[in-house]
Each structure stands twice: as structure tokens, then as C-alpha cells.
Amino acid sequence: MKPLLRLYPASWRKRYGNEMGALLDDVPRGPGVALDLLLGAAAAYGDVIRANRILSAMGAYIHGVCVAVLVQAIAFVALILVAQGSNSSTEAWLGPIHFATVMRPMFLHDFGSVMFIARTWPELEGLIALACIAVLGGCLVVVLRGPRWVRTAH
Amino acid sequence: MSWRRITTAAGFGLLVLASLVVAEGTLAVLLLLFSFVLRVNLTIQLTSPPALNAWLPTAWPYPDVTLYVGAVLASFVVTAACGLGAGARRFLRWRAGT
Q: How many domains does chain B have?
């Protein structure tokens, strides 16, 4: 277990390293202790980052970028989900700016002398899209709430 | 303006640009993954002919999703705005120990 203490920031190890090492000698080894040490290391790094204005702002910048990427991935899957419920092609635009087009597949059916076009999309795809949005939404909640959870856990 | 400030600003700009490129690359990988899972033919049309075609390796006619230059530019702008907004907010409201 002691090697996990190397994951902590140097300033933390200098102050509490010996004390924590002695404590780990008395504690039985297990995955719970290892997980606790990992969360403790994350919280200790969080404290170091929050104590510095520039590092704190950089952390917030990276956090904001991660949230934006996840939101855009959710928007992409949502666009496909909306297109699945539409009978024609779906387009996304804002004023003169054209963002995306979703074209449904078409088939030519020949019934005797009558030919018509059918647009198809398997119904199962809608459920898969919903599952993808649920997974991405879960990731978004973890990214948004994760830092607070780590802080309150320690 | 001193050279020190100019180089600091240039370094900050390059860092932001590099992180945006990494973020957009990650987003592109996510879109490719979900287009594969949802079985759509994804085309990112930056140029003509398209810069990226992620066609599914089957003959079945799956739906075609085309993302245009506007979507790519809007994605860059939204990602940069979210990141810089969050960073600036933290920088301006920062207090020691919070």
C-alpha cells in the first residue's frame, strides 16, 4: 500500500508522509484501503490546484472544455434520434449557417406496375440512441459533480 | 508592452489552441464511435470532396449524416467559449482555500 503514497503531491508527503506510512502499517491491506488512498490523492491534488489561482483557472478551463465536448456529443446523438422520428430528411441550421443533414435511406419497391419509395430506419436504433444519450448524460453528471464528490468524500 | 508579456500571451494562446485541437479530436472520435454504434454513415464535409468519410463496411444503405463547415466552426467556438468562460470565472472569483 505504501507505494500508493507516491501518488500524493510532494508538499503533502513532506508534511503527512511519515504519519500516513505508519498508519498504513497498522491497517489491513485491501481494495477498500487502496481506493481510499486513490481518492485521497485526487483530493490532495485538488487542494493544491485550488490553492493556486492560475492552476485553479486552468483546471476550470479543462473542466469547461470536457463539459462542452460531452454536450456536443449528446447533441449529435439527439439529432440522429430526432431524424429517426422524421419522415423526411432532417436538417440543422441557425440562420444562414448550415450545420448538418441527416438523410434517411430509401428503397424502391416494385409492386407490379406501381413503384414507390420507402424510407426505413430500424426501430431498434431509437432505443440504442436513447441508451447512448443515457450513457453520455451519466458521463456528464460525473464530470459536473465529480470534483465535489471527491472533495466531500475527504 | 514588454516581450515577456507578449511571449506569455502567445504561450497562453498556443496552449488554448492545442487543448482545443485535442478536445475536437476527442469529439471526432466520439462521433465516429456513436455513428458506428447507431449505424449511420458519417461525413464531415470540410472540403469538397469531404475531408472525412466514415462509411460502414457493408452494402446496406444506412442513413447519411453530413456535418458541414458551420458545425465544425460552431463546435470550436462553443468549446472555446465554455472553457475560457469557466477559466475566466474561476480566475476572477478565486479566493485562497475555496
A: 1
pTM across the whole model? 0.78
* DSSP assignment of B8-70: HHHHHHHHHHHHHHHHHHHHHHHHHHHHHHTT-EEEEESSSS-SEEE--SSSS-PPEEEEEHH
Which ipTM was obtained for this model?
A: 0.85
Compare CB distances from B82 to A50, A68, A73 and report the shortest one's residue: A68
The reply to whether residue A80 touches residue B40, judged by beta carbons under 8 angstroms, is yes
Domain that holds residue B53: 3-97
What are A82-120's pLDDT values in tens digits? 888 777 788 888 888 889 998 877 665 555 555 555 555
Distance of alpha carbon A150 from its chain centroid, rounded?
16
